[in-house]
Please model this.
Amino acid sequence: MTIENTRTRWLALYVLCLGTLMIVLDSTIVNVALPSIRNSLGFSQSSLAWVVNAYLLTFGGLLLLGGRLGDLYGHRRLYVGGIALFTVASFACGLATTQGLLVTARAVQGVGGAVASAVGLSLVMTLFTEPAERAKAMGVAGFVASGGGTLGVLLGGVLTDLISWHWIFFVNVPIGVLVCALVLRIVPGGRGAAIGTRLDVGGAVLVTGALLVAVYAIVNGNQAGWTSAQTLGLLGLAVVLLAGFLVLEARVREPLMPLRLFRQRNVSVANGVGVLWAGAMFAWFFLSALYLQLVLGYSPLKVGLAFVPANVIMGALSLGLSAQIVMRFGIKRPLGVGLTLAAIGLGLFARAPVDGSFVVDVLPSMILLGVGAGIAFNPVLLAAMGDVAPQEAGLASGIVNTSFMMGGALGLAVLASLAEARTAGLLERGTMNEAALAAGYQAAFAVAAGFALVAALAAALVRGGSPESKSTETERRPAWATPSSTGK
Model:
């Protein structure tokens, strides 16, 4: 079932983006409220981390499985289910009066967020099949995904300062209810494109276990130590589980993740680029917020305002110019240029001084990162998902989301650890606190710039001429055609 009316199709996209925005906001809105949550519920410094980690564990671990379930049982059905679960869990978070209830509800939020995120892009790809419209639609989705985190910091500061931390969760409830109602009314339903196939239970258990263990090791790496027996043992276990998953997928008749997908160059390269880029961008967002707050003395609300220029630029590019650039130049060149600009922006942050000013030392980096992210986000999503058949669209979406999630979590954890080690070493030698913090952030930003630069170089491997040049091929064999429908 498809939507023939163009206006209705775009309205459906906006509804899906509203649900996605709610989930993206949640990944950052909580960080601003953590001090208030700690004081209210009596968390210790170490246990407070679980307010964030419980969400990361389930979200990162269940993305791939959520995408495949959407392929099997219907993308709309799974999307509504994920949004509904996320909404109920948000309400429970807002009501929480104990540490256990809040952490448990946050874990359930992660489950709902993973399912909805994994199939959300699949619905967008299904709604928009014509190359020019798809590029514009993915630009809108890219804007929401890239700019939502910045909005989360601003909104978190406003709600926490003016009302209470409970409202960072309560605000999700009316949004979630509205999204579920509108999706059921506007977005086409139908059975899963992969209906009739069996769920690879063994593969699901192995890959979900591998991701859960890996994320657990990553988010606790700073506390336990990166060379500790716990961290190395868990990472080793994750590798063993992942190896078992790959062996199983090569042998099972109906695999959860067909390895042949990675024979497509764009799928492999786009996911590799996604890992590196997410590591760099997560570092930019979180470490620059720490620099602004702990070194320059900004308030949480002022930190959010500092990100507004980048957010506005990303929005302007993602919503309009990025799609036009893709239609004119394809996906390779915009992806490489965008990542290069992001690398330069991170490189500028690597020299941010203790007595820095916003206009001279922050704004130029924000502008470059906003332009880079606005140009590159659309092409990397198109590269990762543009060539897959409908029965594997949810899987491709789950893979690219998992790549971003794992790359971001790993990159942030490693770079935060690097910054902390650099700062600790300087403090032991008698360096002033602000100077030591700034030096730690500078080191982390330099490595993050390296991540973005490597991603830019890898983008040269993407195959992507102008979509207009492929119009004949698209008419002859649409991107959503199944192997049986093309006779191949």
Observations:
- The first helix runs from residue 6 to 41.
- The chain has a mean pLDDT of 77.
- The chain has 20 helices and no strands.
- The domain at 1-197 is CATH 1.20.1250.20 (Growth Hormone; Chain: A;).
